[in-house]
Structure formats: structure tokens, C-alpha cells
Specification:
This protein is of the alpha+beta class. It contains 12 helices and 14 strands. The protein binds flavin-adenine dinucleotide.
């Protein structure tokens, strides 16, 4: 099928893109890599009178860092992130998540901003952003504002971005000290969206006690989520005393809106989710104590 007719705009600056968004409101949609939007338009699951192509806005692309954080421009391709040494060494969770996204041709076009703004509950990047307490910058004609990842994902495929706002960058804090990171997911075929998955970032002190443990869940509800009660309960625990399987079950025990479809029931997804938490926690802890 073909999309319904639209007017194509290619702004030359992010500010111009924001002006177009303000002018056309909910009749317009930003397009970046097109890997989620084009299938929806082609299948006529969505239709917009105006498409604003930001893929070539070089100001929105690239990876920069300072001593405390790494910032990734919204139109940076997923494949570029996967190849980046800065990302591999400073935000390992993002690097490891990248290879789980679809297949290389998709990552060659798909962008971090598109993935985060699209906010699929089973997608890897939104879960990584939430797990690492990333900050997201939005631009509109009124100016720029920063949104915490915890406030960003508001529902199934919906975010805190307004119709007149463009996502410009995602900033990840760098964790120092003895830390480990892991993402585990289960999908029926390599490259498919995960049935469920978990991200873990853990920091341990010199006595091998947990100093901080962030656990992100995906595919287990309408939005990516954090297992905050379990995270808090782990702080101060000796890592030798941790029962990872029990922690996995506890992390998913209170979930109430686990999706069910032809790929798996809610109960199945929940069981898989518990195992993914246990696996990710085990390998993150191993990496942290090797540090
Ligand atoms: C076969 C296939 C398999 C896939 N498998 C996976 C997978 O396993 N895991 C996964 O996470 N993803 C998967 N994807 C999706 C892929 O990661 C997409 O690239 C991503 O979801 C969207 O990025 P994009 O740059 O292509 O965005 P687009 O498709 O261009 O846009 C997606 C949405 O985000 C909005 N948007 C884009 N950029 C911005 C911005 N800067 N500011 C505001 N709004 C913006 C658009 O308006 C649109 O609503 C798959 C896609 C395909 C086709």
C-alpha cells in the first residue's frame, strides 16, 4: 500500500523544524529514519498532511561527552551508536542494547530520537534511557526544555513531547566506580521486538555491597518501567547474599498490565520477564566485581 498524500518539508535547521511543527500542529509529523513511521503510513494506520524530515539536520546528529555525561543527538543513527567507542566505554548498556534492535539495515536508518519518541513499550532504547535516568531535550518555538526519562514515557506510544516539540538530544550520565551493565531479552526470532526484557545497571562498593541498582523492564506494560521497590531493597546488600531468581520474580510480581497477544499470554511474558531480570542482574554483578 501507499501512504495517503502529504506535503514534504525539509527544514535546514532544528529551529525551522520547530516553526513548521508550530505552524501545522497535529497535522504534521516529524520523520527521522522512517523505520517505524513509514510502515504505519504505508499501512494507513496513520495519516498526516505534512511530514517534516529532520534526518539531514547535522546539528542534531553526533555523540559528545564530558566528565559526567554522554550526549547523543536525536538523529544519530542506531548503527553509529553501535560502532561508537565512546558509547561502548562510557554507556555500555546503550551499546549492548543496540545490537538487539531489529537488523543492521534498520539500524542504518533508525535513529535514537525516533526510537525514544516512538516509545514502543518493547523497544530497547526507551528502557535504557529510563534505566540510566537519561535526560531528554525538547525544542519548540518557545525554546528548549529538559525532560527526565522518568517523566517522558506517558503511555502506549505516547510521550511528554507536545505536538509542537522536537526531541533534540538524549543525555546519559556516566557511572563511575565498580559498575556493571546488562540487557537481557527474549524474542522468538533474532531481531524481533522482545516479548519481554530487562536492563540492569549496578554499582558496588569496595566491600562488594550494592551501592545502587537500577532495573528497567520492557515489553511488560504499556510503557517501560523501573522496579523501584526492588531497587531500593537491594541497596546495602552483600552481593554474595543476593538470590537473583527471587529478585527476578519480585521485580515483576506487582505488574498489572502485562500485554497478551498471539505471541504470548500475560502470565508467560511475566515469567519470562522474571528470568530476564535474573539474567541481566547476574551478568551486571559479574561485570561490577571484575571492575
Ligand atoms: C522490521 C523492523 C524491526 C524492528 N525491530 C526493532 C527492535 O527489535 N527494537 C526496537 O527498538 N526497534 C525496532 N524497530 C524500530 C526501529 O528501531 C526504528 O528505527 C525506531 O523505532 C524509530 O526510529 P526512526 O528514526 O526510524 O523514526 P521514525 O520512524 O522516522 O519516527 C518514529 C516516530 O518518532 C517520531 N520522531 C522521530 N524523531 C523524532 C524527533 N527527533 N523528535 C520528535 N519526534 C520524533 C516520528 O514523528 C514518529 O512518530 C524495528 C523496525 C522494523 C521495520
Amino acid at each position: 500500500m501507499k501512504p495517503s498524500a502529504f506535503e514534504y518539508h525539509r527544514p535546514t535547521t532544528p529551529e525551522e523544524a520547530a516553526e513548521l511543527l508550530e505552524e501545522f500542529g497535529d497535522e504534521a509529523k516529524v520523520i527521522a529514519g522512517g523505520q517505524s513511521l513509514m510502515p504505519m503510513l504505508n499501512l494507513r494506520l496513520a495519516a498526516f498532511d505534512h511530514l517534516i524530515d529532520i534526518a539531514r539536520l547535522t546539528e542534531l546528529s553526533g555523540i559528545t561527552h564530558d566528565s559526567t555525561s554522554v550526549t547523543v543527538g536525536a538523529t544519530t543513527k542506531q548503527a553509529t551508536i553501535g560502532r561508537s567507542t565512546t558509547i561502548r566505554t562510557s554507556v555500555p548498556l546503550l551499546s549492548r542494547a543496540t545490537s538487539l534492535i531489529g537488523h543492521l539495515p534498520i539500524r542504518n536508518r533508525g535513529t535514537i530520537g525516533g526510537s525514544v519518541a516512538h516509545a514502543d513499550a518493547a523497544a530497547e532504547y526507551p528502557a535504557v534511557a529510563l534505566t540510566l535516568d537519561a535526560e531528554l531535550e525538547a525544542l519548540s518555538s518557545a525554546g528548549r526544555r529538559t525532560i527526565q526519562a522518568a517523566e517522558f514515557f506517558t503511555g502506549m506510544w505516547s510521550t511528554a513531547l507536545r505536538d509542537d516539540e522536537l526531541l533534540t538530544k538524549v543525555t546519559f550520565p556516566r557511572w563511575e566506580g565498580r559498575s556493571g551493565y546488562s540487557i537481557a531479552e527474549f524474542s522468538r526470532r533474532k531481531g524481533d521486538f522482545a516479548l519481554s526484557g530487562a536492563c540492569v545497571a549496578v554499582k558496588v562498593d569496595e566491600n562488594a555491597r550494592v551501592e545502587q541498582c537500577n532495573i528497567g523492564l520492557f515489553g511488560l506494560g504499556p510503557v517501560p518501567m523501573r522496579a523501584t521497590a526492588i531497587e531500593r531493597s537491594l541497596v546495602g546488600c552483600s552481593i554474595d547474599a543476593l538470590e537473583v531468581r527471587e529478585i527476578g520474580h519480585a521485580a515483576v510480581a506487582d505488574l498489572s498490565s502485562v500485554p497478551a497477544d498471539l505471541h504470548g499470554s500475560s502470565a508467560y511474558r511475566t515469567r519470562v520477564g522474571a528470568t530476564m531480570v535474573a539474567r541481566a542482574l547476574t551478568s551486571a554483578l559479574e561485570e561490577a566485581i571484575d571492575d
